[in-house]
Amino acid sequence: MTVDEMRGISIPHGPLPVILLNSGDAPHGRIFTLLHEFAHILLTNAGHETSSLEGHQKPEDRRLERVSNRFAAAALLPREPFLAEIRRYPGAVEGDEDSLRKLAFRRLKVSPEAILRRLVELGRAKSGVYRMMRRAWQKRSWYSAPQGEGGPPLEVRVIASAGRPFVSLVLDSYRRNAVSSSDVSDYLGMQLKYIGRLSRQLNPGPGPTELAV
Predict the structure, then answer these.
(1) How far apart (Å, rounded) are the C-alpha atoms in residues 54 and 189?
(2) How do residues 142-185 score in pLDDT, each as one tens digit?
């Protein structure tokens, strides 16, 4: 699914509540969504109905969404430490995108939108500034790391996403010719030319871990 369609969803009912996140979303955005959906689980267990998945949202749904957003923002950006960081980048209060991006990637590890929303909640930024920036971000992705910043290598991301047991199973099956090279690419979501790096990341110790491509 695209991020426009779904960033995250929770199934809050027992015996085992579940939170699903869209792997196509930016990592910082997924952290916020995780806590947002966790708030829905807490609210459901406290006797509130969770937000509807279909049709037009009721006023109660919109209220639960706002509460969940505030919960996530407060958990990720506690008031005093957050305001101390903001003093380093005063332009963030006015919606300066460079300041917001530096805060997001180098300091706070949340999205610029979450930072600006939290500033509005604390009365430090104007809601009009937030609405203006949010409209701009909806037209394009804000997730572009500042120069010099980068994400983890592909092999690290594949293992983190699929899990070490599953990756090990796929690689072992490939060694035994039980699955094809195209199967490996489909299962792991990566080109086969990176399989050697993946194997070394999975088994960094001494020994023959390289896979032939």
Answers:
(1) 31
(2) 554 444 445 678 888 888 888 899 999 999 999 999 999 888 98
Helix residue spans in 77-121 (DSSP H): 79-86, 97-102, 112-121
Region class of 177: left (phi > 0), else alpha (psi between -120 and 50), else beta = left
The full set of domain ranges for the chain reads 8-139, 154-202
The answer to whether the CB of 143 falls within 8 A of the CB of 26 is yes
Query: What is the rounded CA–CA span in Å between residue 145 and residue 101?
Result: 8
Predicted TM-score (pTM) of the model is: 0.65
* Residue 22 neighbours by CB under 8 Å, 6+ apart: 1, 3, 6, 7, 8, 30, 33
| DSSP for residue 20 | E
The first and second tokens of residue 109, run together, are 């590890």
Spatial separation of the C-alpha atoms in residues 11 and 183, rounded to whole Å: 31
pLDDT in tens, 22-63: 888 877 788 899 999 999 999 988 887 766 655 556 656 678
Tokens 């299962």 belong to which residue? 187
